[in-house]
Amino acid sequence: MTYARIELDGEPPTADRIAAAALVNYGHYSTMQIRGRAVRGLDLHLTRLDAATRELFDTELDPERVRDLLRHALGDVPDATGRITVVDGSGGAGAAPSVIVALTEPAEVLDRPARLRSVRYQRPFPYLKHAGSFGQIYHGRRAERAGYDDALLVDDAGVIAETAVANIAFVDGDEVVWPDAPALAGITMQLLEPRLPSRRRAVRLSDVTSFDGAFITNSRGVTPVGQVDDVRVPVDDRVVSRVVEAYAAVPWDPI
Prior knowledge:
The chain is built from 6 helices and 15 strands. The strands form 2 sheets. Strands 6, 7, 8, 9, 10, 11, 12, 13 and 14 form a 9-stranded mixed sheet that branches. A 6-stranded antiparallel sheet has the order 1-5-4-2-3-15, sandwiched between helices. It is α+β, with helices and mostly antiparallel strands. It has 2 domains: 5-104, D-amino Acid Aminotransferase, Chain A, domain 1; 114-254, D-amino Acid Aminotransferase, Chain A, domain 2 (Alpha-Beta Barrel), CATH 3.20.10.
């Protein structure tokens, strides 16, 4: 992926500084859609970044600093996909962490139901959106080469956790069932769960046919699922509209 704009601690990155971040795969990030210089769930993104910084670097991350860096990188650009990455500072271990802001074109959801291929894989430290993402990228790309849109990550017992790049939820009548398994608490999921009649429970691959539908959520929004492996998943436009409307009602927070 080629980013349209990238800054490290508010400056164009030098080769030495960006090399340190690229060669040592230790850090975490949050990805967001920016429209009109605003973000849905901005406080959740900032909370995620601070919590992970405390865990990985044993220091806090000032949310106002992050907002300032994001505003600076945007300049006069109103709409973008933003990725904020926190990495080791220029002084190495023990130095204050550095913040990379990378911007590219705005991204939208698929214009059709997603097709998922299940794989036996779980992300290490799944509650963190960390930089060590080789496994999920590997499985996601293999799924795409096989004609699917993403990989569905399950454990050895067939318990569903998440996809390589999204959370997944299942529709059971009027309720939304979120898998109770080790997974990242995605920002879109956090915004939707309290706005929909939701519950959590373990969901296995063998359970997929018992549901009335499914959808995935990530920074791009909400996409219905139309297929898991060779199993067709029903797509009810009324249910999809209800979820999409719930997400559309989430206010945009000015950066």
